[in-house]
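Quick entry between incubations.
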Amino acid sequence: MEMGLIAIGAGLAMGLSALATAIAQARIGAAAVGAVVEKPETFGTVLILLVIPETLAIFGFTVAILLMFGLR
Amino acid sequence: MIVPMSRLRCVGPKSLLRQTVDLLHTEGVVHIESAPALGGASPLARLAADDAIEREHVDLDRLRAQVTRCLLLLPERPDAERAGAAHPSGEAVTESNRARLAAVTRRLDQLTRRRKLVEDELSLLSRYGRVMEALAPLVRRLPVSRDLASIGITLERADPETLGRVREALGRLTDDRFELLTAEVDPTLTAGMLVVPASLGPRIRAALGEEGLGEMPVPASLADKPWGRAVAVVLNRRVRLPAALARLDAALQSLSWHRRSWLEALDRALANRLSQIEAMAWFYQTELTFLIDGWAPRDAVAGLRERLRRETGGRVVVDTTETLPSDSARVPVALSNARWMAPFERLVHLISLPRYGTIDPTPFLAVGFPFFFGMIVGDVAYGVILLAALGWVRQRWPRHPVAGPAVRIGVWACAWTIVFGVLYGECFGTLGERWGIAPLLVDRLHAFPVMLAATAGVGVLHVGLSIGLGIATAVRAGRRSDVLSKLGGLCILLGAVALIAGAFRVIPAWTRWPAAGAAGLGVLLLAASREAKAFMELHNLVNVLSYLRLMGIGVASAALALAANLLGAMSGHVLAAVAIGALVHGLNLVFAVVSPSIQALRLHYVEFFENFFQSGGREYRPFRRVERHQ
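Done. Structure below.
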């Protein structure tokens, strides 16, 4: 039972943070494509802005791993 | 490394301007400054182009547009030599060159016009060829008379009911004075020949569209011929036109073979002379002298000065001034690195050039990017396959400006992929176990805590290095508060890492006191910097966590490889297992190219560059001749 709850918690931590990242990157990505089409030289800058929200997923991943191994 | 630059001013009599410009253009080391700081009441004014120069500019522009048009219309010569010395600019506009260009243009226009006519006709005939073939037997049955008009029509999806309605409509329009012969082209298209009194022809044609019928167009040259003759000519031309098109293509190829290299050399010569004229807009003058303000690599100034002295008898001089820190925003930046690092300069260009006087991040990218890529992908087989793919790309596009550096970067990335593949014991994921390949260092699918600690450790080292470079940059710039805040950030980072390591018993427990002391010292240093933004240095602790993606994405890749092997094994048949494995491993390989590249770049651009990289460098664009056609 306990392991099951831990697994659910880890899944929620990873899944919800990945969902948040996806929502953020979807909006940034759409704006980034528009910017790059008009000014191709901004490609490097928009690439950085696009990948910044991934830190949210990393936090979720860290929590999931800590749950899987820290609480066992 | 950022190439050291000198600011220079080239001064001489106006009579030597053309010769000086030619010489600077040939040397190709001076970046012309477009907005020199003249200061105060200056006797200098912008160099005004005289009428002769203006006329030459207009003439050369027109000639170059003509040459560009010819080059666009001529087919490429993939086997041709592109290198070759450009004509000296003075020879570009000789009378013989103009006459030759006019002759080439005339011949090219003639061939392209005829080719377009043939192509258009062939396209029309291809669309209606089948319809014409279906109509040919009907046409033979047509009565030939000046009092009758024959109209070719097409009907889509003509069932008997639709044809009945069409006949009714035609009967109303013509008082039943019509004949409609139909033949099926295919299940969706029916062709028909409609014969009506000639007087009703225009009215019927106008009404066709209202009844959903399409009139079949006939090439303009056959519009006045009877249908029988027109169909026969069309079918005959459909057979002969491809040969005519091939002859015209051969003529264009021959023209390209004989003239393309000459056109490209002429284009280069015109481009070089035009760039000289356009650069003059940035020159300055007094009543008797000219002045050219610019920048050049420090090592090249002596050679430039000597050549000017030799060729102008010392009448044109070059004066250099010291580059001040306040000039850093204006000094053009050129990167110069060891040959194996040079391709990684493209990755720096992707984001922005560093400002002059700061640190060139290319060497760190050259080491870090392939290392991180390899750490994420970490599979011997994937590394070998990617190397083979890079070899093919290099062979296919040997001199491509983007593929060349990408291949050289990729080779380093693949080398580290193979190294980490050996350390992880992975070859097509866990398939290596069957061949006796065991992990030399860690099995990353079963050692998550070890991988977490390792990637966090990589993060601490990388961010620590970044802070160290930030300290060096701040020391060089003389910014005391930045030095204190960055030192404070480094102390806090190391102290926090030591505390966490002590809590997990990675290091002895007694180290917690020095670690706490280091963190406390860091806080004091941040406060001593007396800047609120100094506490942003704490962000480095979060940046370290970002490096956990090296583990997360790498383990995901390894898990997908495991899934490929398990799915293949479940099929129970060797061929099916190979096919399934190849498909899923192939998908994993595609992910392995895209995602690790972006993540490795992101860790450099965001977490690593944050502490020391100063963007906004101005690109070094020397005033130089074009030697190869672009």
